[in-house]
Amino acid sequence: MEHAFDISFEDGIASPLSEEELCADCAFVLEQEGVERPCMVSVSVVCDERIRELNASWRGIDRATDVISLECERPDDPDLAPGEPCELGDIVLAPDYISRQAAEVGTTVQDECRLLLVHGMLHLLGYDHLEDDEAEVMEAREDELLALIKTDRPIERVTLTRHRGGEDA
Q: Domain segments of the chain: what residues?
């Protein structure tokens, strides 16, 4: 199955992960989630100021964050014709914010970015973490997926406490 990924980098902003890895990790999540419909996903790598603007505009929270997921369609949308590609949505990553966060939680910038990319993909697929029971399901799924993705160091347990208040992603 052919998924399509549109990867963009804001001028002067370097991604912790290569374009190839961003695409491969997104495709991996779709495969592991059993998505049988071709999907289109956009991943943008931006500065803290740009993600702050998006967070303020889309979520009413006027501060920078690590990742924002903007859902468009779901693969199981009954309005999509058989075989019609699904425009899954957009993931926006802020590597400077992610770098500071990685230092705080004691992981590599690349692994924190991998976690947030998986996190964003799961949001696009309908997972959420606003309620404790939802967060437990999402965290468990992230644990499972991250155990299968090549990481710099083993990621033993995902904790989304920095996301639980609904302020991020």
A: 4-148
Phi, psi of 123 (to 5 degrees): -60, -45
Helices (H), 106-166: 109-124, 132-148
Nearest-5° Cα angle at 51, 2 to 120: 40
The answer regarding whether domain 4-148 maps to CATH 3.40.50.12780 reads no
Integer angstrom CA distances of residue 87 from 5, 29, 40, 41, 110: 10, 15, 5, 7, 26
Model confidence, pTM = 0.90
pLDDT digits (tens, 9 = 90+) for 63-103: 999 999 999 999 999 999 988 999 999 999 999 999 999 99
Residues 6+ away with beta carbon under 8 Å from 77: 86
Per-residue pLDDT reduced to its tens digit, 23-42: 999 999 999 999 999 999 99
